[in-house]
Please model this.
Amino acid sequence: MKTFKIALIPGDGIGPEVVAEGVKVLRTIEQLDPSISFSFTEFPWGCEYYLKHGKMMADDGIEQLKEFDAIYLGAVGYPGVPDHISLWDLLLRIRKEFDQYVNIRPITLLNPELTPLKGKTAKEIDFLVIRENSEGEYAGAGDWLFKGKPEEVVLQTGVFSRKGTERIIRYAYEEARNSKRTLTSISKANALNYSMVFWDEVFNEVGKEYPDVKTYSYLVDAASLYFVTEPERFEVVVTSNLFGDILTDIGAAITGGMGLATGANVNPERKFPSMFEPVHGSAPDISGKGIANPIAAIWSVSQVMDFFGEEQWGEAILSTIKEILTEQPSLTSDLGGNSSTSQVGDRFVDLLSAKVSEVGVSQE
Model:
């Protein structure tokens, strides 16, 4: 039996509500597949923890997390705690300490009725964004000079190392090659005359090793337009930390909203655990009402299973998401349904169980 150790950080707002449904799916997989077992350890870190202890996580939190195979995060952020503290002292700390330098965001239309784009189909909105996840504009470098004075100056420095830039671009080339898809680099070299010129040069240098991969390059403003008007241009996309953050939210908007947006923070060398999360945020305005959409959190479970090498389960979860999206009454109100968060999870595991009973899941 394969046993996977998962650290649960439900976090803030709707985080605990949606993570509970993801765990429900994992528990169902255990029941359906006797070759797989999960162990869960929950950590109470987040904004409530901060308000009680003055810190977002335990002092030895990173050491505690090292022993796990994966981290499943719900959401971070709550009124009363500044956003830069909630982000930097938990989410970004984990990403950086565990060198989770690859952020994987699927932009996939699972139900054609969910896109606001007129005339676009699932075939035309199906691509993968690979975002640099460890440096760039989120490196935390800069200065604040003459604070409070008329000559006050703030410097925010984007950090683009040869190591960091090359490894994310190489990862994207490998993904494009292995999946036989095109690769598009998104930058802004006409305005950012150091960082993005360097990015473009590295993209071209690494590309010489992948002559079989067809490539494109767009400025980020043009790419933002094409995400909305011609998403079919994209198959695999690689971009910087800040641009990836913004563009993937556009991607979420064209595929049904943030309630369907998931992301993986991956350490490809597996020296450290990787982290998986819905990226919709903590939504404190609907916290505790039982109406949060858990599908992004469940999609995160699909990414977890792919990461564990259990791709058959990853695909089974994804196909079940497609199925439940056709049952509007089984969805939460943001998707036009009337089900609660837990009712969506219950219906999902019923569909998943039925699917496995009908076609089975191959065991290697």
Q: What stands out?
A: Residues 7 and 71 are 5 Å apart (CA to CA). The chain has a mean pLDDT of 96.
